[in-house]
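Quick note —
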Amino acid sequence: MIAYYSWSGNTEKIAEVIQKSTSGVLFEIEPITAYPKSYNATVEQAKQEIRENFLPKLKSTISAMEYDIIFIGSPNWWSTIAPPVSSFLSNNNFSEKTVIPFFSHGGGGIAQLETDTAKLCEGSAIFKPFVAYDNGGSSLELEVNVWLKSLNI
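Predicted structure written out below.
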């Protein structure tokens, strides 16, 4: 399964490349109340949610229990995973699963995304994440496939 949240489409692009290469089930994590279309309004709302450890309710859910390997995608929002991804991870049991994170960022790099994902996936095997700046550019598909091959899954 490839579960992801994407506000701008960058993380979605990575998820689609992973899905194309693995034929996994694609699941978009969506909050019931969408974030504002305005970047600045989204920044303010997300900063507040992260400070308060707010977990937004999601439009739909999918059980991780049916999958052995779960790719989890999130943008870097102020050095951590986006609140909808935190909600998804908090609402599933990942023990004895293989969790493979992937992230997009606008300059903040991986920051605490890997460790914050691992905290919410207790008892799982966390694999090396894929990290892309912005939308990954023209070499995204090649880079994702090299990364996937390196995982030996």
